[in-house]
Amino acid sequence: MGTMEGLEVTDCEQCPALVDCRSQIVNGTGPEDAALLFVGEGPGANEDEQGEPFVGRSGSVLDDKLRDAGLSRMDVRITNCVRCRPPENRDPTKEELSNCREHLEREIELVNPDVIVTLGKVPSQHLLDRNVAVTSEAGSIANAELGGEIRDVLICVHPAATLYDRSQESTFESAIEKAATMAGSSGGQSSLGEF
Ligand code: URA
């Protein structure tokens, strides 16, 4: 199992198919005390290559919408339900999700965010343990016991959904704006930094 104490998983080998496929374990990124924790599904090719969540096209969409909402990627924590790339970008299996759950629970407990934002159907259903119609439920808050506490979970569509279906762009934007408001986007970084 290796290092199990902190936010970084260094040598987990619980999922044979993912161990075969990955080039590295992709841990969460961002402040260890972030008010907002974004949770995606799992690393894709770019993330597997660079060792950081949401660095491909989905990541650009997320970065842009965070900026529009007055946040920077540097202000938030970003992680995934599974930390190793599934083959051919398939969805993680129930077993893989459950194997990786301990890492996610520990990250939630240590970061202790004000709001957890689920990016897409897989993380929404995984964290809420029910079927979620992400498009119609996006922007709504649900409660779930995560990292030892009942927490606010803001349901959101996956950033890639906006690339396939432009009508999802405003759905995504509104949810990110709501996340920024809930986390008090006025605190922290000075807006003068933009000039
Ligand atoms: N999609 C995800 O769900 N997670 C990533 O890290 C990248 C793309």
Automatic annotation (TrEMBL):
<keyword id="KW-0004">4Fe-4S</keyword>
<comment type="similarity">
    <text>Belongs to the uracil-DNA glycosylase (UDG) superfamily. Type 4 (UDGa) family.</text>
</comment>
<keyword id="KW-0411">Iron-sulfur</keyword>
<dbReference type="InterPro" id="IPR005273">
    <property type="entry name" value="Ura-DNA_glyco_family4"/>
</dbReference>
<dbReference type="InterPro" id="IPR051536">
    <property type="entry name" value="UDG_Type-4/5"/>
</dbReference>
<dbReference type="GO" id="GO:0004844">
    <property type="term" value="F:uracil DNA N-glycosylase activity"/>
</dbReference>
<keyword id="KW-0479">Metal-binding</keyword>
<dbReference type="InterPro" id="IPR036895">
    <property type="entry name" value="Uracil-DNA_glycosylase-like_sf"/>
</dbReference>
<feature type="domain" description="Uracil-DNA glycosylase-like">
    <location>
        <begin position="27"/>
        <end position="177"/>
    </location>
</feature>
<keyword id="KW-0408">Iron</keyword>
<dbReference type="GO" id="GO:0051539">
    <property type="term" value="F:4 iron, 4 sulfur cluster binding"/>
</dbReference>
<keyword id="KW-0227">DNA damage</keyword>
<protein>
    <recommendedName>
        <fullName>Type-4 uracil-DNA glycosylase</fullName>
        <ecNumber>3.2.2.27</ecNumber>
    </recommendedName>
</protein>
<dbReference type="InterPro" id="IPR005122">
    <property type="entry name" value="Uracil-DNA_glycosylase-like"/>
</dbReference>
<keyword id="KW-0378">Hydrolase</keyword>
<dbReference type="GO" id="GO:0006281">
    <property type="term" value="P:DNA repair"/>
</dbReference>
<dbReference type="Pfam" id="PF03167">
    <property type="entry name" value="UDG"/>
</dbReference>
<keyword id="KW-0234">DNA repair</keyword>
<dbReference type="GO" id="GO:0046872">
    <property type="term" value="F:metal ion binding"/>
</dbReference>
